[in-house]
Structure formats: C-alpha cells, structure tokens
C-alpha cells in the first residue's frame, strides 16, 4: 500500500513539477498536460511493444512532450490567445494524435512485454520485496530530475525564466523576446510531463488514451498541498515540496478509494475529492492565517 | 544620436474611433542631451516613447538611432540600446526574485545562457554598484525585491538601466508614483547617473519645476505635436510662469483658430 502511494506520488510528482514550472514560475496556465501525459504514455507503450530500449523511449517521450508544449506556446504567441485556450487546443489535437500513435487503438497492453519496471522488480525480488526495487529506481530518477531542475533554475537562463512569470516587461526591457523564453519553458515543462506519462505507462503496464483526463488538475492539487507544507523562496525547497505534495495527494486519493465507501464514496467520486481539495486549498490560502498557510500569489487562469 | 523623421501614428484607422495620436513629429536629440518633455494628458508623450522604444510601429515616418534605421526593429532588440523606466516602480524589477537574481538578469542585456555567472566576484561587483544608490541595498542581495519600497525599487531600476550604459534612456514620469522625499532622491540619482555616465536622457514629467531645473532642453507637446522646443541657450532663463504663459498662448491661438472656423 505505502509503496503504491510512494510510486504513484513520485511518477505523478514529475508531472506536478511540470505544472509548477508553468503555473507558478511562468504564470502560464497550461492545459497541454492533459494531452502530453497520455502522449508520453502512448509513445512508451508503442515503443516498448516494438522492442525499443526503455531509456531511449523515455528520451523520445520527453522530446515529443516538448514538441507538444512548443505548439501551445506558438499558438499562444502568434495568435495572441490566452494560454489556457492555446493549451486546450493542443490537448484536443493530441487526443487524436495519441490514437494514431497507438494505431487507432485506445489501449496498448504491456502484459507480454518485459518492461524496465518488471526487470527491476524481478532483479530486486531476489533480496527484497520486488516493489521496493521500482521505488528505489523512481526515487533515484526523481532525485536526479530535481537536481537538474534546481541547477537549471540557478543558471542565468533559469533566473530569466523565473523573472518572466513575475514581470514580462522586464524581460523585454533587458533585450530578450519573452515569447521565446516562454516557449522554452513550456516545452521543457511538457517534456517532463512526457517522461511522467512514460513512467506511468510502465508502472501501469498499459497505455490508455483517456489516461490524461484531469492530469493537470491533479498536478495543481499536488502543487497546492505541497505549498502548505513549507514556505520558502528557495528553489530547492519549492521543487521538493511539489514532490512531497504529490505523494500526499496520492495518499489522500488512496484513502478515498480505500475508505471512501464508509461515507458512500465510490471510485467514480475521486474527481470530486480532487476538486474539493483544490477549492479547500484555495480557500485556506486566501482566508486562512498563520505563517504556514500564507502564500504569495494566486492562480491566474 | 536619435532622429525622429516626420513620424505619425494613427490608431484605429478607418473606424469612427480613429485617433491621430502623433502628427508629423520631427525631432533630433544629440548625444549627451538631457531633454525634459512636458504636456497635458493625451498630448502624445507616451505615444512618442512607445515609438522610440518600439512598443508599436509608426504609421508614417522613420526613426534612427546612431544613424541606424530602427523603425522596424522589435522592442526587445531595441531595448539593448534603449533603457526605459516606467511610472510604475513594479515594472522594472521582478518582485518575486531576490535582488541578486534581478541584478544577474540586468547586468548584461540580451539572451542568457546555461552558465551560472553568479559568484563571489559578481556579487562584490553588484554590492559596489548598489553602494552608488546609498540606500543600504548592498547588504540585502538575498532579499526578495518585493520587500523593498517603491522608491528603492525605482532607484534600483534606474541603476539597472544604467549598468548597461544605454545609448538613450527614456524616463516616463519615473518619480510620479513616489512620495516627495523618495521622488527627490530618485531625481538626484537620475542627474548623478546622467552626468557620471554621459547618458542621453529624455524625461517626461508633470512636475514643472523638475522640467525647468533638469536638463538642457525642454519640449512641450500638445495634441500629438511638439509645440515648443527650448534649447540649451534659452532654457536656463526659463521660468514656470513663462512656460505656463506660452502654453496658454498656444492654446488660445488654437481656440481663436477654431472660433474663426466656426464663426466666419
């Protein structure tokens, strides 16, 4: 049970990190995620069935996610429409593209394929419960991603990316085209989502075209829960708390699945829990007091 | 340095809201000039700035900076040579970031790479430059900029604009949102920096005494035109009463013209 929560928390935590980059750092409400997550998943599923090395497949999932993000950023910049709408357009297009990637099937099963996770599990199974092997692998991967992101946000370009969300005029005034910076940020973010989708595919043992529904909202909920945990302006803490928030969110979802029947909730009601959770977070951060709960900035959509 | 050649801007062309914001404006600003720009609201001062900075393109005419035609150059590219400070102190700095991060973005204009340039040496350089402001900011490199006062942020914006030694510095009522004491501090810094680095400055102001006291040239704008241009020979003798009188004269002339048109 606890391994399941941690594994899901880590896999979806990578997606939540991406949501953090767009919503919080770039102030860009990006709905592409709902399409780029199943995109990463579909690519992983199809490539694994085709016998591709899983690490190469993850890289390809990253690249395709980044391409999807770029499409959103270009639509937003060139047609001058709100980020939210641009993301929804890309997300809608991606639904059909994902079906094409999976040769017009809505589901690809990895039952007969030896995935990376299965290999790790069987190897680890020699000396510990097999799930711990997968968990250790994910912990290492997420740690590596965190380190890369943290270092990235300390580079001159990373700092510029941070300033863009806070003050786009300043980026222009400093001789840079804010749309170019934004494009790179949204692309990177959706690349991460692609990775998360690919890992989720291996964990679940299947790719499902409908798996993306509600992804971005789950990411937002994780993000907000994380923001209640620690308050800081240091990027190391900001990114770490996203992962912690994601794990906590999965725990709440698990509790909802496991014990929800006591108050009459079924698995179909999980989206209600997510929605109410987000509303609760917003209400508490808006009206709550105390240093832990106070937080700068609201979500702009 | 800056040549504005028969520039005009019309908004909403062909609609009932058609608005000629600038009418055939020509202007030449020399290197090292400090030009103050006055005029009532809607006179076209900010429109003129937007054209020089490249926020939008003129409908007629051309703009040259150091002999190069920049009429079609996008704003972000012009920003490498033109510094601009807005009335709103929040527009110059990124509030949610630390002072040192803000300085990293501003100490060199143009796109940033993936290197990490923030180190002890650069921090020491930042402290040294921040000392010029005499506001104690050199000890607050790790503080978020949104903890600073409006005056401190505007002074910082000024310093950041000056760090890259722009060919032209556009000040758009940059002290109007500050309290009088901070406004004086920022104005003094403006003069100090302009002198120290030999900057070419244009400054929009609604404060007549600033318009008189600062700079070697004064422009008055009205209805999208430059109606008065006082050069360095005349400007030191200029008084507030005289400006107001001249403004009234111009307005009256217009009024009588209108009257003549309406009552032949």
Secondary structure layout:
The complex is a heterodimer of chains A (about 300) and B (about 260).
Chain A: H1 2-25, H2 33-49, H3 54-78, H4 83-101, E1 107-109, H5 116-124, H6 130-154, H7 156-166, H8 168-173, H9 178-204, E2 206-208, H10 215-229, H11 235-259, H12 270-287
Antiparallel strand pairs in A: 1-2
Helix pairs in contact in A: 1-6, 1-9, 1-10, 1-11, 2-3, 2-4, 2-9, 3-4, 3-9, 5-6, 6-7, 6-11, 10-11, 10-12
Chain B: E1 2-11, E2 19-29, E3 34-38, H1 45-53, E4 60-65, E5 68-69, H2 75-78, E6 82-85, H3 99-107, H4 120-131, H5 150-163, E7 168-172, H6 180-197, E8 201-204, H7 208-213, E9 217-222, E10 225-230, H8 240-262
Parallel strand pairs in B: 3-8, 3-9, 6-7, 7-8
Antiparallel strand pairs in B: 1-2, 1-4, 4-5, 9-10
Helix pairs in contact in B: 5-6
Binned, the helix content of chain A reads: over 70%
- Please give the largest β-sheet of chain B: 6 strands, mixed
Outline of chain A: globular
Number of helices of chain B: 8
Q: Note the overall shape of chain B.
A: globular
- What's the count of strands of chain A? 2
What oligomeric state best describes the polypeptide chains here?
Answer: heterodimer
Segments of chain A where pLDDT lies below 50 for 5+ residues? Answer: 290-301
Q: What percentage of the residues of chain B does DSSP assign to strands (E)?
A: 15-25%
Strand order, main sheet of chain B: write it out: 6-7-8-3-9-10
* Low-confidence parts of chain B: none
The biggest beta sheet of chain A reads: 2 strands, antiparallel
CA-CA gap between termini of chain A = 35 Å
Strand order of the largest sheet of chain A: 1-2
Topology pattern of chain B, helix = H, strand = E:
EEEHEEHEHHHEHEHEEH
- Average residue pLDDT of chain B: 88
Helical region count of chain A? 12
How many runs of DSSP E, i.e. beta strands of chain B?
10
Gyration radius of chain B, to the nearest Å?
20 Å
Rounded mean pLDDT of chain A is 89
